[in-house]
């Protein structure tokens, strides 16, 4: 069987689907690099453990920013690492590859990603791109091929993708660079302003997962969490207690931006498809879909039923894997970019 990989190369996490097997890798999109020698020291989970804890000559970086390449060399090293981790040395053929990109990325960004994939050892004739909202919809089991409207909202680490899909195509969509990372940064900023406390991105993410909520009201039970960080004034270690009500206030702005994108997309939707969405509701995918209270917040803003897809973190890579397994059925939704590797 011809080997093939489907990759969701995300800002926060990278997931890899191996043809005929399933999801085989789910690791953070982080690379640890020696700044003096430019040597790659660690990739994935091992590199993430180094964030905020490295000496001056070592830097743990996220090579993807807002769903696109921010560090070319680190992205190439990361992709090579994941590909070779799955397909061991000695294989006879270069693997096919289907890889996700945010909706609306530029041709330059597409070509840069294709170039990295080819240099990482993939088959040029079998390497394709697919737009994330389409992959998410396929992975969530939405009827993308039917002549009816389906709405998917994919909230990842760097980008949020909102799309209305019908007859195998994206009818209207919005992509904004506000997602999970923006929520983390909002928590960091709030604690520094309101409590004079500085925390790192890993701690902010832990707070979001533990007590973060997009919607609270007078019926919400108060949850508390003690966090550790550094005093913004004197630099000394400090602890502080925060509640889910405070975190809801802290993250309101980025959540509101995502909701405004949903409302804007609904305004652009043709009437017939809007009627379908009214009947079927909105499907949430991506890690951000698991934020407490988010479905309720969106329902109150839109008046539509909101449902979280099964295994929302895996929807994009699962959909990309389905495209890889059934290329004839999904050929028309791929984005071929033919080019020679720019050596």
Q: Do you know the CATH architecture of the largest domain?
A: 2-Layer Sandwich
Q: How many strands?
A: 18
Name of the CATH superfamily of the largest domain = ATPase, nucleotide binding domain
> Roughly how many Å is the radius of gyration?
21 Å
Low-confidence stretches: none
Task: Tell me what you see in this structure.
The two termini are 30 Å apart. This protein has a five-stranded mixed β-sheet, sandwiched between helices. Strands 13-12-11-17-18 form a five-stranded mixed β-sheet, with helices on both faces. It folds into three domains: 4-134 and 316-333, Nucleotidyltransferase, domain 5 (2-Layer Sandwich); 141-178 and 254-313, ATPase, nucleotide binding domain (Nucleotidyltransferase, domain 5), CATH 3.30.420; 180-252, ATPase, substrate binding domain, subdomain 4 (Actin, Chain A, domain 4). It has helices at 45-48, 72-86, 107-119, 132-139, 180-195, 201-211, 244-250, 252-268, 271-280, 294-302, 315-325, 327-330, and strands at 4-9, 13-18, 22-28, 31-34, 40-43, 58-61, 64-65, 68-69, 96-101, 127-131, 150-155, 160-166, 169-176, 197-198, 224-231, 237-243, 282-285, 306-308. The model has no long low-confidence stretch (mean pLDDT 90). It has 343 residues and is of the alpha+beta class. The chain is flat, with a radius of gyration of 21 Å. The chain contains twelve helices and 18 strands.
């Amino acid at each position: 069987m011809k080997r093939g990989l489907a990759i969701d190369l995300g800002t926060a996490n990278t997931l890899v689907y191996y043809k005929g097997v399933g999801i085989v890798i789910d690791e953070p999109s982080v690379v640890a690099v020696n700044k003096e020698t430019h040597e790659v020291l660690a990739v994935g989970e091992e590199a993430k453990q180094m964030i905020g804890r490295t000496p001056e000559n070592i830097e743990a970086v996220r090579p993807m920013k807002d769903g696109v390449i921010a560090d070319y060399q680190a992205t190439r090293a990361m992709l090579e690492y994941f590909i070779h981790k799955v397909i061991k040395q000695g294989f006879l053929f270069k693997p096919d590859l289907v890889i996700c990109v945010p909706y609306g990325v530029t041709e330059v960004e597409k070509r840069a990603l294709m170039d990295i994939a080819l240099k990482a050892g993939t088959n040029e004739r079998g390497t394709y791109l697919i737009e994330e909202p389409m992959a998410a919809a396929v992975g969530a089991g939405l009827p993308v091929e039917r002549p009816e409207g389906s709405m998917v909202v994919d909230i990842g680490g760097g980008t949020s993708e909102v799309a209305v899909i019908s007859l195998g195509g994206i009818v209207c969509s919005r992509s904004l660079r506000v997602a999970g990372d923006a929520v983390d940064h909002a928590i960091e900023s709030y604690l520094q302003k309101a409590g004079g406390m500085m925390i790192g991105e890993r701690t902010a993410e832990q707070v979001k997962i533990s007590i973060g909520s997009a919607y609270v009201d007078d019926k919400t039970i108060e949850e508390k969490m003690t966090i550790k960080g550094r005093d913004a004034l004197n630099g000394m270690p400090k602890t502080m207690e925060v509640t889910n009500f405070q975190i809801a206030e802290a993250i309101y702005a980025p959540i509101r931006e995502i909701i405004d994108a949903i409302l804007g997309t609904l305004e652009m939707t043709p009437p017939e498809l809007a009627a379908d969405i009214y009947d079927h509701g909105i499907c949430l995918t991506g890690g951000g879909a698991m934020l407490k209270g988010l479905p309720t917040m969106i329902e109150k803003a839109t008046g539509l039923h909101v449902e979280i897809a099964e295994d929302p973190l895996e929807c994009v890579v699962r959909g990309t894997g389905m495209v890889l397994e059934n290329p004839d059925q999904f050929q028309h939704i791929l984005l071929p970019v033919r080019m020679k590797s720019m050596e």
